Structure formats: structure tokens, C-alpha cells
Amino acid sequence: MQPEPGPSSPCSRASLPNGVCHCLGQRLQGTMGCEPAEGDDTPVTELVDGEVGAPSQPDRPHIARKQDSLRKNRPAFPWFGLDIGGTLVKLAYFEPKDITAEEEEEEVESLRSIRHYLTSNVAYGSTGVRDVHLEMRDLCLSGRLGTLHCIRFPTADMPRFLAMGRDKRFSSLHTALCATGGGAYKFEQDFRQMADLKLRKLDELDCLIRGLLYIESVGFNGAAECYYFADASDPECCHKEPCNLSDPYPLLLVNIGSGVSILAVYSPDNYKRVTGTSLGGGTFLGLCCLLTGCDSFEEALRLAEHGDSTRVDKLVRDIYGGDYDRFGLPGSTVASSFGHMMCKERRSEIRPEDLARATLITITNNIGSIARMCALNETGCGTSSRMRQGSSPLLREPPDGGWGWMVVAACFVLMVCTRAVTRCEAR
């Protein structure tokens, strides 16, 4: 077994919060860790508190005991986490990069087959995708250095995934998988019957919050993962700024998946679900499929990128001939989503790209309005609030003297909103 890394190792760069392997956040919302196979009493993966490395006052016996304990309590590979959503399944796979020659020699064929299959492909069948741009490199989990891979596929393809797990003999390596999301309940019997696996279910909102804080603590390949938009109301000056979450509370967390949940978070362990809306990423995709004939989320986003929503939506200037100065409404404000579509002549001139863009604007404007009202209701309006001003350009509702509302995770913003559910729920 390779010795634990010392202070100069990449593993000592960040403090990893306890239980973080139980969630992988805005990026995946998912969980990390697997139950051991029969006869192995190794507990589910759990990260140690604090820095991984030597203490400030050298204590070699203590370090040796800690390293030995970590090795004994570390579950066998492979390490997976699943977030089974209503539209997409997000899978986190940790690929160790510090495998010793001894470990490689002892590696069983089924484990080698799984690792090779997942890391040597970027597409799995016709619908599975490994998002290379989302992988987290030089990441330390439970004292092992490696790469975290993000894989997704439609929830409708779950039977194929289970068949692959059966064919790769995954149950010979582990008897259970850690999973979150509604599908962890919906497909529990399918995992047992088709793949001989049980699911260790974890609450998705607990995982969401812990995952967000974890991603913020380790960063994304050396860069900040969480950001806000400065000068959001000015298209020419709008730009991203890193968001410091070292002391973020209270914060409003808007989780956009198939539907939307809005959480008021007061500490890592103290939060409540304020409200939600059924108009989310699933609504965007469903309407785009109906209106444009597209067949996938990616296709819907490509259409929206090249569309002009003003050909579909009725704006304030279409009603007033300009701005509505009394209430400070610019002429570019949407007065009626899809308002032009009541006109037969307008309908005959419309393009699929315009319909996709208008659908995206409709969904994101609705989420932004609800989130802002929740923020005002939960914490009050004023500069004393510690929530930052700013929002995504497609979730834009400029703040009124105090603050607007906050979207905190980059993967969340781009995956659900501007690519329109998470770069695993939007990047």
C-alpha cells in the first residue's frame, strides 16, 4: 500500500469536510462511496476532518496510527455515487491515480474492466455521456489521489445501466451503492432484482448543501467554482466574479432539476425548503420537444442559443412604445411570454430557434421572480443582508437598492439555466 501523502502532496491542499463523500453537490448532487462486498466489514466511505497530512507539531506515531486507521477503514474500489433524478441520472466515479504496482497486480478483472470502460470512453451507447470538461483532477478522497469523473444518462435508460452493472459483475465488488434523488426510491427494487445491489439512500437536499460547500472548499481544478454576475443589468459590462462562501449564511439556494426547490440555508445542518415550482428543466425540455420537434436536452439548448425570443414574447415597448417610466420598466422587459403567438401572421414567421429561446427565457424568468420573492420574504430587503447582489443574465431581476437574489454554484447555473438542468443540474 502506498504511504499517505505528506504536507506537500496535493491531498493536503484543502480541508475536506466530514461526510463529503456522501454528496457531490451542484455538480452532481450525488453521493460518493459504496458498501463493501460480503465478508468485508469496511464502513461506507467517509473523509477525515481537517487537513490530510502532518499536524503542525510532528508526531510520527500519531501520523502512522492515523494512516493505518485510514487504510483499514477505506472501502474497496470502485467508488461511485449516484443521483437519480426525474430526467437525468448523474454518476460520480472516482478514478485513483496513485495505484501502486502491488495494487494493480492484485486488482480483480471485474474492477479493471469497470475502470477501463468508464475512463476510456466519453460516450456510452447512444445516450450516456462523460462530461470531460467537468472532471475534477488531483482530488484527494479518503487519502487517495485521483480524478472525479462526471457521467450522465437519461433516467429512462436505467434498465440499460442495470444490465451493464450485472454484466460487469459489480455485485461481486460491492453489495450496495450510495444514491440520492427520487429515483433511489423508485428504482430500489430494480437494483435488487436486476443487478443484485441494494441502495444506501441519502436525502438529496442534504447532499445538495454538503456538496455545494465541498465544491466551494476544494475549488474546480484550481479555479473558483462559485460565482456571481457583477453589473448584471448591463449586457456590455456584465461579467463573472468569484463568490466567497467562507461565511455565506443565510443564503437562498435555488436547485433547478426537472422541477425546482428553493431552500433557505442558515448553516450546513440547518435549512428549510421554502417553496418550489413545477416549472423547471423538465418543463423546458418537454415544451421544446413539443414546439420544435427536438429530441434531446442538448439539441434544445443549441436551438435556444441561436433564437430570438422577442419574436415570440410581447415586450413592454410593444405595448407602450417604449419604457414604462413610472414603474421603472425598460421597454425590453417581457410583458407577456409567448404574447405574439396569438397572432396568426407572427406564428407563420416563427422559427424553432425562437420558440426554444422564448421557452428558456420564460422558465428562467419565472424561477428568478419566485426566488427573489422568497429572498425578500425570508430575510427582508436591505443592505444588511449578507446575500450578494447579482444573478445569471438569463435569471436577471436587477436588485432594488438592497440585493436581488443569488445563484451560487456555477455548475448549477450553467447546467440547468443557460444550457437550460446541472454543467450535473446547469454549467
* Major sheet: 9 strands, mixed
Which topology of the largest domain does CATH recognise? Nucleotidyltransferase, domain 5
| Overall morphology | globular
Through-space gap between termini: 37 Å
Helical element count?
14
CATH class membership of the largest domain: Alpha Beta
**β-sheet strand percentage:** 15-25%
- Reading the helices and strands in chain order gives HEHEEHHEEEEHEHHEHEEEEEHHEHEHHH
Radius of gyration: 23 Å
Unreliable stretches, pLDDT < 50, 5 or more residues? 1-31, 35-58, 380-427
**Percentage of helical residues?**
25-40%
**Mean of pLDDT:** 75
In total, how many domains does the architecture comprise? 3
Total DSSP E strands: 16
The computed structural class is alpha+beta
CATH architecture of the largest domain: 2-Layer Sandwich
Pfam families: Fumble
Catalytic activity: (R)-pantothenate + ATP = (R)-4'-phosphopantothenate + ADP + H(+)
Keywords: ATP-binding, Coenzyme A biosynthesis, Cytoplasm, Kinase, Membrane, Nucleotide-binding, Transferase, Transmembrane, Transmembrane helix
InterPro entries: ATPase_NBD, Type_II_PanK
What's the layout of helices and strands?
Elements: H1 25-28, E1 34-35, H2 60-73, E2 79-84, E3 88-96, H3 101-106, H4 109-119, E4 123-124, E5 128-130, E6 136-141, E7 144-154, H5 158-167, E8 176-180, H6 183-186, H7 188-195, E9 198-202, H8 204-218, E10 227-230, E11 239-242, E12 251-256, E13 260-267, E14 270-277, H9 281-292, H10 297-305, E15 314-315, H11 316-320, E16 334-336, H12 344-349, H13 352-379, H14 410-418
Parallel strand pairs: 2-8, 8-9
Antiparallel strand pairs: 1-8, 2-3, 3-7, 4-5, 5-7, 6-7, 10-11, 12-13, 13-14, 15-16
Helix pairs in contact: 5-7, 9-13, 10-13
